[in-house]
């Protein structure tokens, strides 16, 4: 569930920012998408995406752990 | 000592949270600059006017006790519709947190750590927000009790220090209202009424957790007025120090004004220190929006909100970067689009829509209560 | 618990991996104390920076070498030149402790707005450095003239001008931000301090200059540079500068007032407050400058009995008459000679009669030069030092 | 948290495996009730104390019956034993008393051993426990119960002036290793029946006795119950010092801040008892624990209360300031000299710059070298035999002070920073608290080296967030500050005069909130009318 939420929020918030950018720069959707997601060169890209990936990993782990806990609970019953 | 399951915040804490929330980014980026030397009047007017919506938020929350905005929406609109609306709200909350975070990042990178990537600032700051929300709302409340005196104290001290440095030229605020109330009202609506005052909509997520709900509303309104006054004071000091033109020109007028302080050749360049004071306001603002969003996720995805903290914090850090390419884009979005497209529907539209439903449902609830 | 660990480790890792973007150790940077900008021979500007040589300022480590090093480059943009200074200097330059900006006369006459924007925008400069115009002398030489007590020339000048402002009012308290504020205001024109070198500039450029009781060359303040917008148009002398400052925010000054024939009293003016009342008399703007000040009698050459109230009254009257005419002369001189409002009368008009000012703001200087100015000085002579009657009085 | 669970689980199974072996190790634990047969008892005891040179057992006559007396001569006072027990036993008049049942046995004890602490025991191992604690065990043939008589008198360090928390003015007694002495030191100060002591035994192998002292009418019952519960819950084999107990009963172990106050001063313990806290005395440790504890306790010294409240308050503020200095001064040095040169006043800047000329390391490395040098010196100073302790300070002063500067390794200003930090570290009355500052300091330095002032502030934020999340026995650690309690401010940053300090701390939820409602500010006697002064 956490992973789903993560992906959902990620996609939709990117979408939101893109919609705003479309309006501001008068570009088409795909142009804006390309334009927004290509970040500046250098270390910065890696930092941002590393952060995002750790977020994704964390949500995987959390999901896994919670499903395990749930199944343990069921067993206990 | 059993741990209390429902987190409570005291009225003092609520007061501090509301005022720190209102200072938040507002005190950094400077508000109401368009009203030139009358911006302090504009702030006071906006503060007084926004008592109405804030009272309205409080009314909605108090109508159905112990339920936050999202739970009320669930009661009013039913599961399906409310889920969609809640998701929209979550997006709104996260988007605003990201914007505030960007404001803060720009501040740090622009003035203090010039070569440090803004991304690192965003991420480190979000890590802290994640940590404090992981510890809980209660901890955030107590945390603010410690830092609030410094925040308020230094905002007040800036004016006094400027006065001693002979930089406070009160005549700069003259003439008062040379062109009537028109320009002031143009600033008040829609800008000031939505930012920072309308953003108190996020407190509909917090109010139900106040320890004395009966007084929570009064406390919030008192905090609103006090912080409105302090914001106006700060704006007044900025105008008196810099003059309206320079204030409007400055990216972070409070810092520019503080930079003028010079006492005994020793207290100089205090603006760097003010940044830290401001950092606390930013923290509260981001935390509360973030908390609102997390509570929404908890409701929609049916998992404890702590589970979402780290991933979502990273998304907000990411968002704060891609939200705009450059500072100009960030500001122009903030001026031209965010108030109309984003603030007004979420701050006024949906709560207003909620109003008749809440009245109807709460009547139902009450009569049910009587039957029992 | 686990989340906390994750947070802390990622925070630490982030720190370790990323390194320190902004670290600059103190011995990796050089602090610029003064910047001089003048007309270049081949390019638009010639920029000279004065860099502090800290170890020579330290009592223990000083070897008697120069406390400040200068270097000049020519180019078309200040920003680029400042970043390019390592052509001749070893360390990265920092401008946060810059205290003086000396502008060459030619550049000032051409207009200085071009680089003021950079100075305000860069955020590297502190806001409290003094704006100076080098009169009849190369701006770079100003940064090269040493002084034994305050060894770094730029710091010396900064100190000199702020002390002169505080003690006698002979320098305007004009910081960069004030200058820009005046520039952007429709009802005021900026001014700057003017300075020059007495003696030979070549001699001043050596530490040996510090070894003489009477330095070969010395930087002196000579009054006020008057600007129209961002262009230099003329100067006021020291007396006039004081009179100008008196209409603004004088802290204290000393006057020599005639009390009889060829005889004078010395008066210390303290606690002076000035206010401007603006009015429109049909088509002529009309200003009343009201100055209220306390005065202390420092000395007298007259024989009047200082234990009598009448004497005080007389002296008060004398001071008032003299200072009123002095200030009025200065204002009239500016009105007639330069035709620019450096006093901020326009701002007063804007505050007090907003609508009228809006109508004339685009040609305010014309309005200013035809304005009626009325100066009222109210002096309250409080006391006369530590003695009562002067021994001169007893002579009678 | 899976891996952690695994470790805990494996720990459990390990314990189960060893349990059998362990039983044999701790003797007599499962021993049967006392047998009526004297011989059997005797052989059981002898088996238990096999190979114990300090064990003594003698056959005696108790009344008209056979009996044995056993004791450890290392734990008992021989003259006491002789006077109180052996002399009455050898008295010929007792020889023909009949001891047929328990009542007669009790009457016998009353007559001959009155005034000696005693217990009757049903099982052998209880009796053996008493013998181990310095009692003499008496078993009589045919009697179902054994009698233990207190004749213990172990040599302890006499009451001395405490080596920590010294005062200029105030009582100079300190707790010792003896539980009885410690109890008496407290009892002497609070002569009141509502002062209660409750004992329990902790530690499977050491069987250390732990006493909880509290004031019945003041202490909150919930907190008291929690303290007791936690001490009972301790599962360990050995307790040697109150430090062991502290670690077991703290609310949270993952923190550098001590959640329980410790003191060597009986007056401090007594004062805390009267505030409504519990004092935990561990046998063998001169440091008693005080629970619950809040952050501000660590800034209060007993001497604050023995001198004028102006001085007391001032010193207290100095302590808070020096905590901040100890925590952040080095990191501010790094942040200012390596990042924010603009914040340093110009003249100071040039002075610092001149000092740094030619120093080969970056400021952080320079600082870390000196910090670690200092920590090494400090540790050496503590662990060194007293006799050569003197040399340490000389070596330290030479190494840190002059040599390093003259060799150009570090700058003068840095030495000042280090010295001030070191001094500030020693200001807090409690050593375990300053340890927190010493440790956190390095994190601060590190963050300052990466992010400058932003890093320092981020660290402060993390620290404060951590602090507010802590609790000590359910009481928020930063209690009167956050959550803010206005009434409790009279004894936090400032020490208000006693007449203004009428309440016990609110956050302790005491049963008696007022402590001295009648106290009034001193005033000269009212002058008579017409006295006209």
Q: Provide the structure class of chain C.
A: alpha/beta
What helical percentage do the residues of chain C reach?
A: 25-40%
Q: How far is the N terminus from the C terminus of chain B? A: 33 Å
Beta-strand share of residues of chain B? under 5%
**CATH architecture assignment name of chain B:** Orthogonal Bundle
Largest sheet of chain C: 9 strands, mixed
Work out the count of structural domains of chain C: 2
Multimer state: heterotetramer
Count of helical stretches of chain B: 15
Number of strands of chain C: 13
pLDDT average of chain C, as an integer? Answer: 82
Series of H and E elements of chain B: HHHHHHHHHHHHEEHHH
Instruction: Please summarize the sheet with the most strands of chain B.
Output: 2 strands, antiparallel
Number of strands of chain B: 2
Average pLDDT of chain B: 82
Rg over CA atoms of chain C = 26 Å
List low-confidence stretches of chain B. Answer: 1-5
Domain Spore germination GerAC-like C-terminal (chain C): 223-385
Main location (chain C): membrane
Keywords (chain C): Germination, Lipoprotein, Membrane, Palmitate, Signal
Pfam families (chain C): Spore_GerAC, Spore_GerAC_N
Question: In words, what does this structure look like?
Answer:
- The complex is a heterotetramer of chains A (77), B (372), C (396) and D (533).
- Chain A has three helices and no strands.
- By secondary structure, chain A is mostly helical.
- Chain A has one domain (2-76).
- The longest helix of chain A has 34 residues, at 43-76.
- In chain A, 25% of the residues are buried.
- Chain B is mainly alpha-helical and 372 residues long.
- Chain B has one domain: Hydantoin permease (Orthogonal Bundle), CATH 1.10.4160.
- Chain B has 15 helices and two strands.
- Chain B has helices at 11-23, 26-29, 39-49, 51-63, 69-77, 79-111, 118-135, 137-164, 182-194, 213-242, 244-249, 253-259, 271-301, 306-322, 327-371, and strands at residues 262-263, 267-268.
- Chain B has a two-stranded antiparallel sheet with strand order 1-2.
- In chain B, helix 6 packs across helix 14 and helix 10 (213-242) packs across helix 12.
- Chain B is globular, with a radius of gyration of 21 Å.
- Chain C has 396 residues and is α/β, with parallel strands linked by helices.
- Chain C folds into two domains: 27-236, no CATH class; 237-396, GMP Synthetase, Chain A, domain 3 (2-Layer Sandwich).
- Chain C contains 14 helices and 13 strands.
- In chain C, the strands form two sheets. In chain C, strands 1, 2, 3, 4, 5, 6, 7, 8 and 9 form a nine-stranded mixed sheet that branches.
- In chain C, a hairpin with a 5-residue loop joins strand 1 and strand 2 (45-52).
- The radius of gyration of chain C is 26 Å and the shape is globular.
- Chain D has three domains: 38-150, no CATH class; 179-293, no CATH class; 316-476, no CATH class.
- Chain D is 46% helix and 12% strand.
- In chain D, strand 9 (278-282) and strand 10 form a beta hairpin.
- In chain D, helix 10 runs parallel beside helix 15.
- The longest helix of chain D is centred in the middle third of the chain and has 30 residues, at 309-338.
- Chains in contact: A-B, A-C, B-C, B-D, C-D.
- The A-B interface holds A 1-2, 4-6, 8-10, 12-14, 16-17, 20-21, 23-24, 35-37, 39, 43-44, 47-48, 51-52, 54-56, 58-59, 62, 66 and B 87, 90-91, 94-95, 98, 117, 119-120, 123, 297, 300-303, 307-308, 310-315, 317-319, 321-325, 329, 332-333, 336-337, 341.
- Chain A: Keywords: Membrane, Transmembrane, Transmembrane helix.
- Chain A: The chain crosses the membrane at residues 46-64.
- Chain C: Belongs to the GerABKC lipoprotein family.
- Chain C: This is Ger(X)C family spore germination protein.
- Chain C: Its main location: membrane.
């Amino acid at each position: 569930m956490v992973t789903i939420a993560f992906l959902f929020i990620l996609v939709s918030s990117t979408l939101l920012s893109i919609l705003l950018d479309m309006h501001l720069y008068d570009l088409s959707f795909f142009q804006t998408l390309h334009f927004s997601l290509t970040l500046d060169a250098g270390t910065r890209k890696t930092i941002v995406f590393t952060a995002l990936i750790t977020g994704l990993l964390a949500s995987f782990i959390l999901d896994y752990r919670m499903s395990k806990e749930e199944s343990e609970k069921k067993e206990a019953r | 000592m059993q741990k209390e399951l429902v987190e409570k915040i005291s009225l003092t804490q609520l007061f501090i949270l509301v005022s720190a929330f209102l200072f938040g980014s507002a005190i950094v980026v400077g508000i109401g600059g368009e009203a030139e030397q009358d911006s302090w009047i504009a702030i006071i007017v906006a503060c007084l006017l926004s008592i109405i919506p804030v009272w309205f938020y409080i009314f909605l929350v108090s109508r159905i006790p112990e339920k936050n905005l999202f739970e009320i929406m669930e009661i009013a609109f039913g599961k399906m519709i409310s889920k969609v609306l809640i998701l929209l709200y979550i997006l709104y909350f996260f988007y605003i947190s990201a914007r505030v975070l960007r404001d803060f990042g720009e501040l740090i990178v622009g003035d203090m750590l010039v070569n440090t990537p803004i991304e690192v600032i965003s991420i480190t700051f979000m890590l802290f927000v994640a940590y404090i929300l992981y510890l809980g709302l209660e901890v955030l409340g107590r945390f603010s009790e410690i830092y609030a005196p410094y925040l308020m104290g230094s905002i007040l001290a800036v004016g006094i220090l400027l006065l001693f440095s002979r930089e406070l030229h009160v005549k700069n605020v003259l003439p008062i209202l040379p062109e009537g109330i028109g320009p002031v009202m143009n600033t008040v609506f829609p800008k000031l009424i939505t930012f920072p005052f309308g953003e108190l909509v996020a407190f509909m997520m917090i109010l139900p957790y106040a320890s004395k709900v009966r007084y929570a509303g009064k406390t919030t309104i008192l905090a609103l007025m006090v912080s409105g006054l302090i914001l106006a004071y700060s704006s007044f000091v900025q105008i008196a120090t810099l003059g309206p033109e320079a204030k409007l020109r400055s990216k972070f007028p409070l810092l520019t004004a503080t930079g003028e302080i010079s006492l005994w050749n020793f207290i100089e360049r205090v603006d760097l220190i003010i940044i830290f004071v401001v950092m606390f306001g930013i923290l509260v603002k981001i935390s509360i929006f973030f908390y609102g969003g997390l509570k929404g996720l908890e409701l929609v995805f049916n998992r404890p909100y702590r589970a979402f903290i780290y991933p979502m914090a990273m998304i907000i850090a990411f968002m704060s970067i891609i939200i705009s390419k450059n500072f100009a884009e960030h500001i122009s979005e903030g001026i031209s689009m965010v108030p109309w497209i984003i603030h007004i529907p979420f701050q006024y539209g949906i709560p207003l829509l909620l109003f008749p439903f809440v009245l109807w449902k709460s009547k139902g609830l009450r009569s049910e209560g009587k039957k029992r | 618990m686990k989340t906390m660990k994750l947070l802390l480790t990622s925070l630490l890792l982030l720190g370790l991996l990323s390194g320190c973007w902004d670290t600059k150790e103190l011995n990796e940077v050089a602090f610029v104390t003064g910047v001089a900008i003048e007309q270049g021979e081949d390019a638009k500007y010639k920029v000279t920076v004065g860099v502090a040589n800290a170890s020579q300022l330290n009592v223990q480590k000083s070897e008697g070498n120069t406390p400040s090093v200068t270097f000049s480059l020519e180019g078309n943009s200040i920003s680029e030149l400042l970043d390019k200074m390592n052509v001749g200097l070893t360390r990265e330059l920092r401008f946060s402790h810059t205290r003086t900006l000396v502008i060459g006369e030619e550049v000032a006459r051409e207009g200085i707005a071009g680089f003021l924007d950079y100075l305000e925008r860069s955020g590297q400069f502190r806001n409290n450095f003094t704006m100076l115009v080098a009169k009849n002398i190369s701006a770079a030489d100003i940064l090269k003239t040493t002084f034994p007590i305050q060894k770094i020339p730029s710091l010396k000048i900064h100190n000199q001008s702020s002390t002169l402002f505080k003690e006698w009012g002979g320098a305007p308290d004009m910081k960069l931000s004030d200058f820009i504020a005046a520039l952007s205001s429709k009802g005021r024109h900026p001014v700057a301090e003017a300075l020059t070198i007495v003696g030979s500039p070549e001699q001043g450029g050596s530490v040996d200059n510090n070894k003489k009781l009477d330095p070969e060359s010395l930087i002196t303040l000579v009054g006020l540079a008057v600007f129209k917008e961002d262009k230099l148009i003329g100067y006021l002398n020291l007396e006039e500068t004081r009179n100008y400052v008196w209409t603004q925010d004088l802290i204290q000054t000393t006057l020599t007032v005639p009390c009889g024939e060829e005889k004078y009293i010395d008066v210390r003016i303290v606690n002076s407050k000035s206010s401007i009342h603006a009015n429109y008399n049909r088509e002529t703007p009309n200003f009343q400058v009201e100055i209220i000040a306390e005065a202390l009698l420092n000395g007298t050459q007259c024989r009047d009995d200082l234990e009598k109230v009448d004497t005080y009254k007389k002296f008060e009257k004398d001071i008032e008459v003299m200072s009123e005419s002095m200030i009025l002369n200065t204002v009239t001189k500016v009105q007639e000679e330069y035709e620019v409002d450096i006093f901020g009368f326009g701002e007063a008009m804007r505050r007090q009669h907003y609508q009228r000012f809006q109508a004339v703001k685009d040609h305010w200087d014309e309005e200013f030069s035809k304005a009626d100015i009325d100066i009222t000085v109210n002096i309250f002579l409080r006391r006369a030092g530590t003695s009562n009657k002067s021994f001169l009085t007893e002579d009678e | 948290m899976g891996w952690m669970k695994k470790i805990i689980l494996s720990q459990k199974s390990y314990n189960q495996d060893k349990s059998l072996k362990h039983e044999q190790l701790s003797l007599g634990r499962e021993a049967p009730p006392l047998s009526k047969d004297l011989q059997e008892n005797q052989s059981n005891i002898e088996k238990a104390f096999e190979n114990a040179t300090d064990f003594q057992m003698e056959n005696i006559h108790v009344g008209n019956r056979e009996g044995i007396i056993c004791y450890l001569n290392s734990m008992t006072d021989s003259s006491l034993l002789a006077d109180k027990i052996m002399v009455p036993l050898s008295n010929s008049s007792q020889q023909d008393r009949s001891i047929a049942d328990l009542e007669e046995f009790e009457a016998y004890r009353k007559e001959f051993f009155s005034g000696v602490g005693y217990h009757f025991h049903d099982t052998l191992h209880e009796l053996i426990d008493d013998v181990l604690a310095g009692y003499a065990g008496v078993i009589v043939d045919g009697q179902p119960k054994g009698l233990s008589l207190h004749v213990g008198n172990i040599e302890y360090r006499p009451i001395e002036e405490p080596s920590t928390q010294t005062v200029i003015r105030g009582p100079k007694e300190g707790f010792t290793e003896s539980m009885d002495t410690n109890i008496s030191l407290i009892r002497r100060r609070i002569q009141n029946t509502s002062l209660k002591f409750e004992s329990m035994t902790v530690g499977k192998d050491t069987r250390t006795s732990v006493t909880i002292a509290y004031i019945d009418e003041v202490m909150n019952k919930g907190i008291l119950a929690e303290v007791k519960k936690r001490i009972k819950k301790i599962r360990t084999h050995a307790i040697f010092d109150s430090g062991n107990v502290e670690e077991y009963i703290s609310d949270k172990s993952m923190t550098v801040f001590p959640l329980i106050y410790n003191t060597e001063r009986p007056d401090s313990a007594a004062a805390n008892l009267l505030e409504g806290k519990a004092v935990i005395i561990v046998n063998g440790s001169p440091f008693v624990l005080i629970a619950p504890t809040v952050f501000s306790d660590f800034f209060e010294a007993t001497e604050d209360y023995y001198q004028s409240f102006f001085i007391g308050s001032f010193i207290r503020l100095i302590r808070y300031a020096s905590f901040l200095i100890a925590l952040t001064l080095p990191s501010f040095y790094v942040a200012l000299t390596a990042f924010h040169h603009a914040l340093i006043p110009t003249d100071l800047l040039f002075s610092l710059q001149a000092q740094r000329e030619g120093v080969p390391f970056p400021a952080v490395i320079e600082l870390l070298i000196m910090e670690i040098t200092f920590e090494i010196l400090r540790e050496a100073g503590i662990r060194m035999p007293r006799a050569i302790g003197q040399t340490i300070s000389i070596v330290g002063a030479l190494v840190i002070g002059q040599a390093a500067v003259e060799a150009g390794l570090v700058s003068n200003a840095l030495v000042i920073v280090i010295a001030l930090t070191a001094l500030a570290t020693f200001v807090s009355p409690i050593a375990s608290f300053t340890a927190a500052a010493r440790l956190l300091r390095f994190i601060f330095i590190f963050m300052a080296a990466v992010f400058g002032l932003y890093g320092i502030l981020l660290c402060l934020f993390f620290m404060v967030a951590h602090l507010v999340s802590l609790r000590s026995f359910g009481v928020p650690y930063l209690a009167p500050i956050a959550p803010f309690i206005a009434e409790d401010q009279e004894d936090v940053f400032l020490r208000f005069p006693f007449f203004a300090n009428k309440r016990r701390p609110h956050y302790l939820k005491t049963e008696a909130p007022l402590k001295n409602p009648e106290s009034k500010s001193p005033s000269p006697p009212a002058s008579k009318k017409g006295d006209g002064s």
